[in-house]
Design brief:
This protein is mainly α. It is built from 16 helices and no strands.
C-alpha cells in the first residue's frame, strides 16, 4: 500500500508539475502581451490625446471643483491609455505590409503581433469609448464620435485617410477632439472657433512632421502621403506654415499664445539650419509638446485662481 501510495503521490505530483508549467507559461505569455500592448500604445505619445483634454478642461472649467467631475476624470483616463491602444492598434493592424520594411518598428515601436488578447484589448478600448461617450452630455458626444470615426478610418479601409495626401494631415485633427469634448463638458458650449482651428492646424503640422522620417520607406512601399508628395524640404515648409497659422489663430484670442505656439516653427528652423537628423528630432517632440501643453494648462488654471 505504501508503494501504491507513493506511486499515486508521484502521479499527482507530476500532474501538479504539468499544471504549474502551464500556469507559468500562460503567465509569461500574458506578461509578454501586456508588454507588447504597452509598446503598441506609444507611451511617449500618450499626452498627444490626453494633453488636449487637460488644456480643454483648464480653459473650460468655471471653478476648481469642475476639474474633479467624474465624467472629466473618466475622459482623461480614457484618453491617456485606452484611446491610444485603439488608435495604434488599428493603425498597426492595417500597416503590417508597410511596417515590414520600416526600421522605426525595430526600436521604440513594434510590428503588429495580433492574437486573441491583443484583439480583446483593442475591442475593449473601443467598447470603453462607446460607454464613455454614452455617459457624457449630448453636447459633447459629437466631438467624441468624430474622434472615433477619424481614429479608425485614418488607418482602416475603405477610407484609409493616411494614404491620401492632405487628407492624412487633415484627419489628424482627431487628437484635439477629446480636448474639445472636455471644454464643452465643463463650459456647456464648444470652445471658440479660432481655438478649434488653431488646434487642428497644430495636429496637421505634427502629423506631417512625424511622417518625414518615413518618406523613404513609404516611397519604397508605394505609399503616398503629404510628406512623400512634398519631399523633406517641402514638408518642413508645410509644417512651419501650419504652425504659424495655428499661432495666428490662437493669437486672435490672446497674444500670450503666440510665443508659445511660435516655438514650433523656430524648432523646425533650427533642424533645417543646423542640419539635424530628423529621425532623432522626431523623438524630441514629445518633450516639446509636454512643455507647451503644460504652459497652456497652467495658464488656464491661473485664470481660475486669480
Amino acid at each position: 500500500m505504501s508503494a501504491g501510495s507513493r506511486a499515486g503521490g508521484g502521479d499527482e505530483g507530476g500532474s501538479h508539475n504539468v499544471d504549474d508549467a502551464r500556469t507559468e507559461r500562460g503567465a509569461r505569455d500574458e506578461t509578454g502581451v501586456l508588454r507588447y500592448l504597452l509598446v503598441l500604445s506609444r507611451p511617449r505619445f500618450w499626452l498627444y490625446v490626453a494633453g488636449p483634454v487637460l488644456v480643454g478642461a483648464a480653459f473650460g472649467a468655471q471653478s476648481v471643483a469642475d476639474l474633479w467631475r467624474p465624467q472629466l476624470l473618466a475622459l482623461f483616463a480614457y484618453a491617456l491609455l485606452p484611446a491610444n491602444v485603439l488608435i495604434y492598434g488599428v493603425n498597426d493592424r492595417f500597416d503590417r505590409e508597410m511596417d515590414a520594411a520600416n526600421p522605426k518598428k525595430e526600436g521604440r515601436e513594434a510590428r503588429f503581433a495580433g492574437g486573441a488578447l491583443v484583439w480583446a484589448a483593442i475591442g475593449g478600448s473601443a467598447l470603453l469609448g462607446a460607454l464613455l461617450t454614452a455617459w457624457l452630455p449630448p453636447g459633447t458626444r459629437v466631438w467624441m464620435l468624430g474622434f472615433f470615426f477619424l481614429a479608425v478610418f485614418y488607418s482602416a479601409p475603405p477610407l484609409r485617410f493616411k494614404v491620401r495626401p492632405l487628407l492624412d494631415s487633415l484627419s489628424n485633427g482627431l487628437y484635439i477632439l477629446p480636448g474639445v469634448a472636455a471644454y464643452t463638458l465643463l463650459a456647456g458650449e464648444p470652445p471658440p472657433t479660432a481655438a478649434i482651428l488653431g488646434g487642428w492646424l497644430w495636429t496637421m503640422a505634427m502629423h506631417t512632421f512625424s511622417a518625414i522620417p518615413d518618406i523613404a520607406p513609404d516611397r519604397a512601399a508605394g505609399v503616398r502621403t503629404t510628406a512623400t508628395v512634398l519631399g523633406t524640404r517641402g514638408a518642413y515648409a508645410y509644417c512651419s506654415a501650419c504652425w504659424l497659422a495655428a499661432a495666428a489663430a490662437f493669437g486672435s484670442l490672446s497674444w500670450a499664445f503666440v510665443p508659445v505656439l511660435g516655438l514650433y516653427p523656430v524648432f523646425v528652423g533650427a533642424i533645417v539650419g543646423l542640419r539635424l537628423d530628423v529621425e532623432r528630432a522626431y523623438w524630441w517632440f514629445p518633450a516639446l509638446n509636454t512643455v507647451v501643453g503644460m504652459s497652456l494648462t497652467l495658464a488656464g488654471l491661473w485664470r481660475l485662481t486669480r
